[in-house]
Amino acid sequence: MTELAVPPPAVTTRWWRDAVIYQVYVRSFADGNGDGVGDLLGVRSRLAYLSDLGVDAIWLTPFYPSPMADFGYDVADYRDVDPIFGSLADARALIDDAHGLGLRIIVDVVPNHTSDRHPWFEAALRAAPGSPERARYIFREGKGVAGELPPNDWESIFGGPAWTRVGDGQWYLHLFAPEQPDLNWEHPEVHEEFADVLRFWLDLGVDGFRIDVAHGMVKAPGLPDVGAAGQAEMIGAQVVPFFDQDGVHEIHRAWRRILDSYEGERIGVAEAWAPSPERLANYVRPDELHQAFNFHFLKTPWDAARFREVIDESVRTSALVGAPATWVLSNHDVKRHVTRYGGGERGLRRARAAALLMLALPGSAYVYQGEELGLPEVLDLPERYLQDPQRLRDPDSGRDGCRVPLPWTDAGEPPYGFSPPGIRESWLPVPAGWRDLSVEAQVRDGASMLSLYRAALALRRERPELGDGTLTWLDSPPGTLAFRRGDTFACVLNMTPEWVEIPQDHAVAYGGLLLASGGPETSGGTIRLAPDSATWWTRDNA
């Protein structure tokens, strides 16, 4: 047996160390005003669902005023709400209602870039080269005889050069779409602006921030060439001069001081792609952010040995800095894991098992809206709906298919309760086949994915050995994983396509069955695990 220990935290409430946080992609969660687009009123109307599900906090994707070139991640005003999502009063009411139900609210902040419609960038375009207005962004002269070539070879994450030329001949940097110019974080005014933005939302009562591109604000001195193409594929695997530079950590330390100045343990969560778990752990050192998304876990293929390796490395490196590990299976930027795990019945079986694995691991877990319904990626959206700018790089990398609105009811026609009655058109079409995947249908089915999530989350809350703490690996047959949490709880996972028999002495050690994603069969003290399944066991039969 191998035990992985996490040092006890020096905090008061520790809520964030083992919280289950539910990601709401606002455009696609619930439409409250009948225009076919999700909004804050819709989120408010479904808070009771999230409370009943058993999560601890909600992360809301950007709802700020935006031209929507990247669906809100191009922010024109960081202190207001886009009319398509509601008003500032709606945001205040949502925060208050959530707190009344015991739910915390985390909002997105987007500090690497603004919209090209942000007043700062509009002023920069009107101003001359070398002006104070341009100093807030990264403007450079081009290469070539007449400056006709980009300043370096950096590529946009969305495809093409990361530079766009303006009328006077200078170029500006945008690591994403041309409508998302990168800010110059060497400029003190940028630091002051975002410190004020954080305080604005903290004063309104939010419990923390998910920091978009938390690894991206600082660029290597001199903006050196990468020297290779296909740079988007290098992110998170190799060192690149525009991401994961050491200077970002001073920004996060300053933000941590702001968070710590407020009561209630307000938190910062890093969206950070780093080339190693050790580099990722730098973002959650005691004086920096509280959590960092574990994309290494998300990207792990369905293989027991690979999962154990990633779990070991994640827990080990987080423990080096006294932080909890953070687990995530899907989000608004990747294909849904039902599809990644093979799709169809096989993908659904694996997704059910993965849910029990994730919720049994030490640390905090993130649930992307709809994964509790077992929603697959929508792969056949009509061309006229496909608007994701990432498709410019590679049509197969488009993120529209994981952002399709949620089905709430099984009555009538699509969009199945996403919008008020009588509304038939949502911003992305809900598949007709999702009727049986709707919340209403699954609530009535005790064997549904939603019922599994509700049961698992309830048990996680009831059992103190789950969440933060230690993990002890147990011996198990090839293709399986088994570990203990505390003295009484065990999780056993069969990641093979075959039934696997567990030796009798192991089976006795597990105790009684608490919860299963599928199967198992027991006979005469022997356990047979169903293919692609996970089981929870307890010695106390609680």
Short description:
It is built from 15 helices and 20 strands.
3D structure, described in words:
This is Glycoside hydrolase family 13 protein. This protein has 542 residues and is α/β, with parallel strands linked by helices. The chain folds into three domains: 20-113 and 195-221 and 235-457, TIM Barrel (Alpha-Beta Barrel); 119-173, Alpha-Beta Complex (Oligo-1,6-glucosidase, domain 2); 469-538, Golgi alpha-mannosidase II (Immunoglobulin-like). 26% of the residues lie in helices and 15% in strands. It contains 15 helices and 20 strands. It has an eight-stranded parallel beta sheet with strand order 10-9-8-4-3-2-12-11. It has a six-stranded antiparallel beta sheet with strand order 1-13-14-15-20-17. It has a three-stranded antiparallel beta sheet with strand order 5-7-6, with no helix packed on it. The longest helix has 17 residues, at 188-204.
Query: Please, how many domains?
Result: 3
CATH class of the largest domain: Alpha Beta
CATH topology term of the largest domain = TIM Barrel
CATH architecture of the largest domain: Alpha-Beta Barrel
Beta-strand content:
5-15%
Could you give me the name of the CATH homologous superfamily of the largest domain?
Glycosidases
The count of DSSP E runs of length 2 or more, i.e. the number of strands, is 20
Please outline the major beta sheet.
Answer: 8 strands, parallel
Structural class: alpha/beta
- Low-confidence residue ranges: 5-12
From the N-terminal CA to the C-terminal CA, the straight-line distance is 24 Å
Mean pLDDT across every amino acid position = 94
| Major β-sheet strand ordering | 10-9-8-4-3-2-12-11
- Give the overall shape: globular
Radius of gyration: 24 Å
Helical content, roughly? 25-40%
Number of discrete helical segments: 15
Keywords: Hydrolase
Organism: Microbispora cellulosiformans
Domain Glycosyl hydrolase family 13 catalytic: 23-403
Protein name: Glycoside hydrolase family 13 protein
